Protein 1
Amino acid sequence: MTRPFLFSVWNRIMCDDGSKKGIFEAKVNSNRCIGEGFYRVNLGFCGDGARLFAGFIPGQFVEIDLSGAPLPAMDKIPEKLRDASGRSIILRRPFSLADVEVCGDVVNIEILYCCVGPASLRMMELKEGNVVSVIGPLGNGFDIDKNKKVALLAVGGMGAGPLQHLARELAKIPGMEVVAFAGAQSVDRLPFEKPFGDFSARPTLCLNEFSKSATKSIVATDDGSAGFKGFVTGAMESWLDSCKAEMKDIIIYCCGPEMMLATMAEIAEKRGIDCQVSMERRMACGIGLCQSCAVECRKKGTDETFYKMCCKDGPVFDSREVVYTL
Ligand SMILES: Cc1cc2nc3c(=O)[nH]c(=O)nc-3n(C[C@H](O)[C@H](O)[C@H](O)COP(=O)(O)OP(=O)(O)OC[C@H]3O[C@@H](n4cnc5c(N)ncnc54)[C@H](O)[C@@H]3O)c2cc1C
Ligand code: FES
């Protein structure tokens, strides 16, 4: 199938959906490295794109066509990615948003990403003024429950992006206490801009990206090089042990590796806390047609399972409905 044909098919599908999503050209405003292997790219939309992206819900995602971007010079590509780097890119790649900013008629979105393969390596090479094709907004984002009093964000690795965006929205709810728990293997693998503040067992404004929305954070590292020594799930459990709020008033929002989501779901279930998880699957169409992103789900109150599409029905799910792949 040629690209123009794909483009027209996609465009027709988008329009059939009451124009809640579409294919747009976005201009690269900036693309900067914030740590080893971690980048933030800022893209600007105008016209219809700006109108739709202004209403972007945290947890929704976009699909970006990176096939036209050049590869970085070989010496800039980490050795372990060199073999895979030359693979051609047929499919767009899904990314969540870390921020959305409305500036008059223009809407700027920011994506936090890490380089793991041919498309994300090409993303590294985007320069100010380049134009990329973006499909979005896609999927269903986090359901913000304004009746809760405490929102806990469980961040694993690149899950930091959508949860930063969510923290900004939660901060607008009067009286809502928001605490982010951010985990990584070691302090160098935390996908946040340095310098970091004071890491302590109590929530502090230690991570700039969260403190912008006055969200306090607790950092957990597997090797103990910063903050709580252990997994982010352990850090949250120990915080919950001393928490005075009633469990029914708490909600947990998670984004990260599936193992972390499964453990968070168990912790939430055991304590009777509502919990939403943002799932990841390899994606192709991004709009529920190709069935490549199936997530096994449980029918409420039974052992029977069925499949939902991560791109269309998710990527955010109630933690109780998912059958995790471990
Ligand atoms: C809804 C959604 C939101 C995402 N948001 C972000 C984001 O904000 N920032 C970010 O850096 N990445 C995000 N990702 C992951 C991102 O799409 C992949 O890292 C990207 O597609 C990699 O493309 P690549 O060509 O560089 O590497 P590839 O060669 O395609 O992949 C490199 C390695 O990563 C694995 N991988 C790639 N995509 C996935 C996936 N979806 N699930 C499990 N394993 C995968 C592959 O199996 C392979 O081992 C998101 C994925 C989804 C589904
Ligand atoms: S990516 Fe095609 S159905 Fe989800």
Protein 2
Amino acid sequence: MKVQSTRVCRSEILTEKWGREQVADVASFCACREVRHRRLVGRVLALLLFSAPATAADPAHAPGVRVAGADATSWSASVCPECDLAVVGGGSGGFGAALAAARLGLQVVLVERADQLGGTSVRSGVTCWEPGVGGTGIPFDLYRRLQQIPKAVGIYSFGRHLVWFNPDAEPYRFPGGETVIDPTRRYADSLRRHGVKGLAADEAACREHLHGVVFEPDAMSATMKAMLEETGRCRILLNTEFRTLRAAAGRVQFLQLANGQRIVARFYVDATGDGRLCHDAGCEAMTGQESRDRFDEPSAPLRATNKVNGVTLIYRVASRSEAGIDPLPPDVPAKCWWRGSFPVAQMNHYPNGDLNVNMLPTMDGQESLQRGEQASYAECRRRVLAHWHDLQTRYEEFRRRRITWIAPALGVRETRRFVGEYVLTERDVRGGLSQQKHPDVIAIADHSLDTHGSHAHGSGELREPYGVPYRCLIPKGYRNLLIACRAASFSSLAASSCRLSRTMIQLGQAAGTAAALAAQRNVDLSELPPETLRDALRAQHVQLEHPLREELRQRLSTARRTLDGIHGMWSL
Ligand SMILES: Cc1cc2nc3c(=O)[nH]c(=O)nc-3n(C[C@H](O)[C@H](O)[C@H](O)COP(=O)(O)OP(=O)(O)OC[C@H]3O[C@@H](n4cnc5c(N)ncnc54)[C@H](O)[C@@H]3O)c2cc1C
């Protein structure tokens, strides 16, 4: 009875603010509120069993149940009454956050400006998860779902590489790196990067230990959407742009969308890649390379610079029966005009035999920032056509292929990052878990420090995995906002290692889980006991320790090619 009267009241507020059409839309989203509420009670009971804080016995503290309370003022007047968590950005981080939170019982709204999910992994053609520790939670679920679709995903090993050129066995030096689908490898083989000395230094170790995941972008996007929809608790708003927000006293109060709608939620996750929410919330941004003394990083330049990682416009080529060289448009020169010679490229074979071509890079990061998004894209498109023309001209093997797809969005590795309660630095990355003393590690990674273009700085493979503390996701001073994307609280050097897609999904999984726990305990995001969050992540099969715990090893090795256990909701 109480719930019903609340709904009528909110419906009136909505009609006044939005007009009848938008209200009808929200009303249909909320139509099953009572049914969902009953289901939620079951979920909440599971939640309570797990952690049982002092206040948790009161169902009013459960997610989705609106109560008056000290911190409830900002969300009790919500124009979106079911919304516990608003996630902006449907790329790797946003997907991880929305799925984790919805699986744990929160009502989630996911806002994405593009017409499909996946972000850089899909629309920028980064259809590859490089080798790395940590991808045992949501990334593994996603992989198993993709396995259900023919030729949607495969595990790769290295093929040729220019640094391994063997004149006795190869007619010429390959113009970059090549990976090939390797049916003898399993997902578990892709979960390690550290330990190799480097590509040039140790070919045998790289061939034996470095394996990654290649996937079809449309299958990835559709699978992400299906997994979110199966929760019954995630409303996905595609073609919807976040415009700005209102914040006060360390809290986001509401989001304003470009279509005029507002979203009021209890918690917010910035997964926009560029930290759009954090920027509008007035958080402190970091752009370019920090000076050596800012974070005491040995490989940082003495003085701060404005250099950022290079951008790449990725393209795809497929086989064709007739050999030939694709003609160039009149305004595209055949010779490289922006540097001495065309850049090398990383080329990954898709399961269907097509090639994904990733120039390293297509444009310097600063140049791209100066030109702006549209002008950079147009110029990079010209460079792509010239790059491919050059490959076909110089190497006969490429003449039986043609370009079938140029990514609709530029691949941007780095723009800005935001200062959080902790800033991850080179010392964390190189020190590794054995040196770090953080109580709140919520994700681990082991990718090398890795930059492209004129942004070069000290790099190299790592000896062991390192941890990303939860505090890197909390923008300094904020209590109901997390950032779970490549713009999180990393120094420039640290970001060059941990920006990888699976690591971003892990950050998202931690952010969504944190929101569910905070809602259940009725506390701010910054007040969560670290071990509670870590236990909740371990319960979702997230790898937080190295080497892998036996339970995780078993799960990976006995993974069957069925959907068993993937659809299920988790309990905290
Ligand atoms: C060229 C290149 C090659 C790479 N190679 C690899 C690789 O081989 N392996 C690997 O693991 N990683 C690789 N990476 C890194 C990795 O792909 C990215 O760092 C990672 O995907 C970023 O994820 P994210 O969630 O932070 O952002 P994204 O995936 O970019 O997601 C951000 C989302 O937010 C949306 N958005 C932005 N602003 C708004 C707004 N105002 N309103 C609504 N929505 C908005 C965007 O449309 C996008 O969908 C590569 C990156 C690049 C650029």
